[in-house]
């Protein structure tokens, strides 16, 4: 039914560790270590992980600002792992990114007009008037006043800056936006604003999001399909219901149990459950991770739900 | 039965003003709070509402040139406002411990973490060097750090965020303080680490019977840990109650709006999140008369607000500022019949 827009096949990003007298490569940091995922057109794909799990690296690799060690990324069925292919297929225009820190991702010396117009100037040939019209239109979409174009980033609050970041990302009518923790630095009410804008824009222009976050509440609100990342690999992959209602992997359970719940009445039980899961996580490492501490390959559970388990374990579970 | 000594902190009419371009502006405006023994008092609000201002006023860490603090902060009959610096240095770190948001910024990068914790003991106790080291290792054990002896010799950059925050907590509790002030202690941490740190704080509190002032913007954290909650908006406390009432029966429009703008973890959440109109006013542009939240709920008629909003005790232990909650409804909902008392459900 829905068409695939991005397909990631066995993506690996390794950083070399250099040491010793000759500064030779002695080992690698396996930031992303073999990831497969598929994003459909117009959907929001949630990628959850703790800091250091490699989720941002995955996002950067997909948008093409991180060098891929091995593996392939397909955009509408065509390989875009190489920079030359990305140019040829116009992927640089169709894939955009929203960054976490709006202060450091907007050039402080440029006016908002120039910031938002930059991607337009890169890909389209517009006259000055047309360009200004387009910028105004974009500001309108994200609910910013029209006199904003003459201002500089520091004149805006965090939420407004993040909306400018959203406006810049949608400037070229992209098909895919990688949103790397777009609301983690924002207050609750401002976060609500930005999330609602992102949802509206998605419905209007049929954009696919890869929504990267550590906040499971936000991911649940935004996405249909979710992948959970741990130690550079995926531990669980499934629809929203699969993940939140039937979590299988201990790491997913642990993450879910650690989210603070707004349920004062049952907080003692909640804490007890969390400590149980935590104890299970600590004691059963060998069951969920192989002897090198790596996550097992994903096994198919249902048509949508995949879990990283050794096959023996999976059979046992199905037998039950 | 409440003993006199159960009251650890009694803040009365606290005003903290910052100087901006020659004029003073109240960042905390007439704050009244109490902290009891064995209690976690959470102060919640968005950035710029003045919650950290209260923390720095209590602990006396502010720029004395450009800050004016008036009112009373009573700790055991001792007024901390205007207390002289040498006396304050004896209390700070000894009777009142502080945990900051960013553990990396509150640790000295050039000093071994063990020595930093020992430094607190050096100033506040008469332990000798050996005893101090033993106590630090004991503290590291208490805050759940693996291999305390090894950790003692580490530098802050060698530790992960969670471990650093544990060092900061060890430092704060080194002298068994009666009051711990935790200013966003888990904001920079992952959820699983956050849960561990919050558990740790609760355990410490149970052991030492101290009182904790927990400052946070995260309503989930409040629901999980706090006993009493004060919600702040634009320098004022708008609602204060026990934690259950705040979440199950909130009254003030701001509290209700905030709860509705939170992405839920339960149930299906395809509906739009509530967006509060406008923005939090900056310190200089804060309205000083009338209800400060009125501008954010323009569909509520001006007559619903008090001219000079006061805090009312609507039911025992539940305080709400202004009377506008009686006629408050969300923009897309019909206006309710005016309520005059707090209904049970």
Automatic annotation (TrEMBL), chain A:
The keyword Oxidoreductase is annotated on this UniProt entry: no
Gene3D superfamilies with a match to the protein in the record: P-loop containing nucleotide triphosphate hydrolases
Species this protein is from: Lactobacillus xujianguonis
Listed transmembrane segments: none
Cross-referenced PROSITE patterns: ABC_TRANSPORTER_1, ABC_TRANSPORTER_2
Keyword terms: ATP-binding, Nucleotide-binding, Peptide transport, Protein transport, Transport
Keyword hit for Manganese: no
Domain ABC transporter: 6-256
Protein family: Belongs to the ABC transporter superfamily.
Record's protein name: ABC transporter ATP-binding protein
Domain of life: Bacteria
GO molecular function: ATP binding; ATP hydrolysis activity
GO biological process: peptide transport; protein transport; transmembrane transport
Automatic annotation (TrEMBL), chain B:
Transport listed as a keyword: yes
Positions of the ABC transporter domain: 9-259
Swiss-Prot/TrEMBL keywords: ATP-binding, Cell membrane, Membrane, Nucleotide-binding, Transport
GO BP, sorted A to Z: peptide transport
Any one GO molecular function term: ATP hydrolysis activity
A Pfam family matched in the record: oligo_HPY
Compartment(s) of residence: Cell membrane
Bilayer topology annotation: Peripheral membrane protein
Family, similarity comment: Belongs to the ABC transporter superfamily.
Record-given protein name: ABC transporter ATP-binding protein
